[in-house]
Amino acid sequence: MAEVYVNGKFAGLVDNAPDFVQRVRQDRRSGVLSSEVNVYYDSVIDQIHVEGSRGRCRRPLIVVKDGMPALTERHVKQLQKGELSWSDLVAQGVIEFLDAGEEENALVAFSDQEVTPEHTHLEISPLAMLGVVTGLIPYGDYIQSARLIIGSRNLKQSIGMYATNFPLRMDMDVNLLHYPQTPLVTSMMHELSDYDAHPSGQNIIVAIMSYKGYNMEDAVIINRGSIERGFGRSTYFRPAVTEELRYSGGLMDTIGMPDKDVKGYKSERDYRLLEDDGIVHPEAKVKEEDVIIGKTSPPRFLSNLEEYSLASNIRRESSVSLRHGEEGVVDFVALTENEEGNKLVQVRIRDQRVPEIGDKFVSRHGQKGVVGLIVPEANMPFTASGVVPDLLFSPHGIPSRMTISHLIELVAGKTAALGGRMVDGTIFSGEPEEQIRKELAALGFNERGTETMYNGITGEMYEAKIYIGNMYYLKLKHMVANKIHSRARGPIQLLTRQPTEGRAKEGGLRLGEMEKDTFVAHGASLLLKERFDSDRTIVPVCEGCGVIAIHDTLKDKRYCPICGENVEISDIEISYAFKLILDEFKSLGVYPRLVLKNKY
Question: Of the four, 10, 259, 298, 339, which is 20 to 30 A from 304 by CA?
């Protein structure tokens, strides 16, 4: 007797489990049961699980009966003519969706040539096991699985033409590649996803070689000439938005040039770019701290006296200015209304980004690299036919990562460029490597993809043959201009008096215990005196009871809250965070006593 569980709850017992499971499947295929139901028989513990709950991952497969796929040539012709749709095939039981459980009872054939009487299902296409983005990776069947996942993540972070109506959009934090191209080595997914409409990379010449050690680890070297011709150039857009809010009591914000008597008025230089309406003019070059939308708000707190006096007219400054570390050109100004009918101002700022040291570039195979050096074109190595690579990739990134597809794309891209055609690199069904090699040899190049190259500085021939070809490279949104950050002194937090955190808040860079050890190891331990006193404070301490004493500035008196006035009080230097934890101990009823000793 097999136990039957429906959506995890016990429903009853059945005598013949395989027959019951087969009948459920038959009813589902004939439309008696919902196509959303899945059934799984666990023969080890003799349990049947019928699942129809939400949130399960299910995938479509072609049903196989007695060694013959249910999808016939007649179905395919009807689909091509538009007489049949996908949902018709599901309703007819030609295609069914399996979840993780039912898949345990299935034997799935990879292709229709492999189908045997034991098989229960057939893959629609091996490409269907991958997502849309992962399907864009060429020759993905020649790559380690982890790198395939990394490659698809990198594709999602690449800069391209995300939307053609970008001039009219106010999107947050977007990048736009100036000269996007469609890849030479494509896959079926490029066609299905209409990739030509929104490409996100460029075809460049890549040589696999070292150069002066500047492409160690995961670094890449870029030809300055390529950058000057437009390689990897992009624009960064960021909007600033503000609205006139209404407050209780009929008060509201005002967008306009703030008056000098406004509380918190900045210097006149900060407002220099504003026009009469208090909004910056388009094409104005702006830097950090520059005001781009002038705004004043009513005072935060109204006391009883102020409500009836003229003093309530003193407004506070609440303009929108550029954040720390930002700069650019005002691209577009939009004046509109929000849902409540209040005035809404949006200002979009653009900043041209030219590739620089520290920017991230990646191939479609998870081979990411940071620019380590930008070399003048005259110093770049060149081939016998005078071709200069745009990018130099380190050979050490291949053996441990096993991204063979990276190498195949170089040869396929080279063949595509020379043959003036696209090479199909669809996963599991791309053009075979041998065929591409033969075509490359017929075009007059070494079939292995290697060429004789010369040192760009000395003109000497390299002893080794260099692997060189065309490749689709992507620029990622991780640019050093968005991340670079340093500070000397700056804003501190109110509670702990330690520096603020983060680049946007002009924060400090935290030095931890391990960093301290490196300073000590380098013999620079006196540097710690400077690095570890960001919240240095001097507090009076009672030597009698060891608690922090009180210094009354008005009466210029010092006394202890426990012992009173007639007691020895000494000033000691401690971290403000330590003083804070002593106060927290007191609030818990713990007595934190400081026992003072003389330094000398």
Answer: 259
- Please check whether residue 347 is in contact with residue 330, taking contact to mean a CB–CB distance below 8 angstroms: yes
Range 462-469 average pLDDT: 96
Q: Which pLDDT value is given to residue 277?
A: 93
Residue 302 pLDDT grade (very low, low, confident, very high; cuts 50, 70, 90): low
The rounded distance, in Å, linking the Cα atoms of 492 and 505 is 10
Query: What CATH architecture is 136-233+357-475?
Result: Beta Barrel (2.40)
The domain ranges of the chain are: 2-124, 136-233+357-475, 237-353, 536-587
CATH 3.30.200.20 correct for 237-353: no
Query: pLDDT by residue (tens digit) across 231-244?
Result: 999 999 999 999 99
Mean pLDDT of 246-274: 90
Calpha distance 490→504 (Å, rounded): 12
State how far the alpha carbon of 534 is from the alpha carbons of 335, 367, 409, 502, 571, in Å. 44, 41, 53, 16, 19
Query: What tens digit of pLDDT does each residue of 435-450 get?
Result: 999 999 999 999 999 9
Q: Is 328 left (phi over 0), alpha (psi -120 to 50) or beta?
A: left
Per-residue pLDDT, 250:
83
Q: Residue 238 contacts by C-beta under 8 Å, 6 or more apart in sequence?
A: 172, 173, 326, 328, 348, 349, 351
- The tally of CA atoms less than 13 A away on the side-chain side of residue 242 is 21
pLDDT of residue 503: 87
Q: Do domains 136-233+357-475 and 536-587 have the same CATH topology?
A: no
By three-state DSSP, how is residue 349 classified? strand
The pLDDT score that the predictor gives to residue 451 is: 96
Q: Which of 218, 277, 331, 424 is catalytic?
A: 218
Q: What is the pLDDT of residues 65-77, one digit of tens each?
A: 999 999 999 999 9
28 neighbors 36 (Cβ within 8 angstroms): no
Cα–Cα distances in Å, from 393 out to 28, 111, 152, 209, 466? 54, 37, 20, 6, 11
Q: Judge whether 218 counts as a catalytic residue.
A: yes
The phi-psi region of residue 67 (left if phi > 0; otherwise alpha if psi is between -120 and 50; otherwise beta) is left
Question: For the whole model, what pTM was predicted?
Answer: 0.86
Task: Count, in order, helices (H) and strands (E) of the chain.
Answer: 13, 34
- The answer to whether 238 touches 326, Cβ cutoff 8 Å, is yes
Tell me how far apart the alpha carbons of residues 152 and 136 are, in angstroms, rounded to a whole number.
Answer: 8
CATH architecture of 536-587: Alpha-Beta Complex (3.90)
Q: At 157, give phi and psi (nearest 5°).
A: -100, 5
| pLDDT of 17 over the 90 cut | yes
Backbone phi, psi, residue 541, to 5°: -125, 135
